[in-house]
Amino acid sequence: MHRMTLVRRGCLSSASRMTLRSLSLTGTGTGTGVAAPSVFTPTARTLVAAASTATPTTASSDQSTASTETARKKRVLSGVQPTGTVHLGNYLGAIRNWVNLQDTYDTYFMVVDLHAITVQPHNPKELLEATRNGAALYIACGIDPTKAKVFVQSHVTAHAEMAWLLSCVTPVGWLKKMIQFKEKSRKNNEEVGTGLLTYPVLMAADILLYQSDLVPVGEDQKQHLELARDLAERTNYLFGGKKAKKMGCQYTRLFKVPDPFIPPAGARVMSLQDGTSKMSKSAESDLSRINLLDSPELIESKIKKAKTDTFDGLADGFENPDRPDAKNLLTIYQCVTGKTQDEVIADVGRLRWGEFKPVLTEAVVEHLRPIQGRYADVMQDQAYLDRVLMDGREAAEEEAMKTLMNVKKAMGFYTL
User: What was the pLDDT predicted at 26?
Assistant: First the structure.
């Protein structure tokens, strides 16, 4: 959605090619397992979570956990919010890295549609279409449903139910401190919906449902991880331990408290119109991003209009802090060609912008061509896509319900 996984060398600098750049939660934890953008990121809401496939720790098994953790297969879960169109930043920053995980980990990839309605109003028809398209794009990008589970977040009702349980133990003051809420509520006042205040609790539920150990997060996501940690500790204190044992719970530690893991820099794709801002679905101008389903002609037009600078040549484009736009376009070229930074500079460093942009256009178009072809094939077979999502839902629901039912029992709900 790091740490013991390999990433395509082209997306990383020479110094960090062996580290994973996707937003993810990796676990050796004891528990059922499940980021973006959101863990989820507060902007792209990208989530990736990883956890051991073992069952949650019981009171009698705590002492033996450490000696067996390294032998357990880890589970990875990640998701992208279905708002707008999946763009090159989503793909290079997260989705492509998922493909590298599915042979090594027990992988679960979801379309996080519940987070897509945080900001209102939303268009129901567009959400429906974007959800299907997002699932199809996962497969088109290389996710193999015979190796990974692909599902829609709202199909697993444990996410919403756990979010409600956690909401009831979350002080409102904690949520009002969240940066996203403070910034948007300041701009929109009463027009801000409750979802903007409470969506971090849903993010925490997404993470904690699957007993994740580590949460690799960017600097802008630390606050959301801190909330998940606080809620895990608060719930464990209020209802776990001896209290859970008295309630007849099988697992007395209700939630694993996830630790932060700050990933090294990798494929961070920025806006075509502003090299200092991330490529985003929410940006007003479509010229700021390359969508995975853009036609070759549209890609060419966007790259032609991409912001550049007045420097001569590209030789120092990666290293010069005064050239963010150059670094961004070179990074895109690096990622879609699979070359290292040194190889990129040797290849195109001597070129001027008018010479480089056609080269970049051709590289991006050729990289996306097979993805677009596979996407068309998947969308033509709706029955196949539905089967994939049904199978994924069943597998994810089985795991999520283990944690949910244990927590409900600890909180005093009558369970059957």
Answer: 37
DSSP output for 177-239: T-HHHHHHHHHHGGG--HHHHHHHHHHHHHHHTTT-SEEE--GGGHHHHHHHHHHHHHHHHHH
- Bridge partners of 2? none
Q: How far apart are CA 42 and CA 12, in angstroms?
A: 24
Q: What is the pLDDT of residues 160-185, one digit of tens each?
A: 999 999 999 999 999 988 877 777 77
The verdict on whether 278 is a catalytic residue reads yes
* Model pTM score: 0.77
Determine the 3-state secondary structure of 396 from DSSP. Answer: helix
Q: Is 182 a catalytic residue?
A: no
- Catalytically annotated residue among 74, 149, 256, 278: 278
Sheet holding 148-152, edge to edge: 47-52, 74-80, 106-111, 148-152
- Answer yes or no: 339 catalytic: no
Per-residue pLDDT tens over the stretch 7-31: 333 344 333 333 333 333 333 333 3
Of 184, 222, 245, 305, which one is the catalytic site residue? 184
Host H or E run for residue 236: helix 222-239
Structure confidence by residue, pLDDT tens digits, 272-294: 999 999 898 878 889 999 999 99
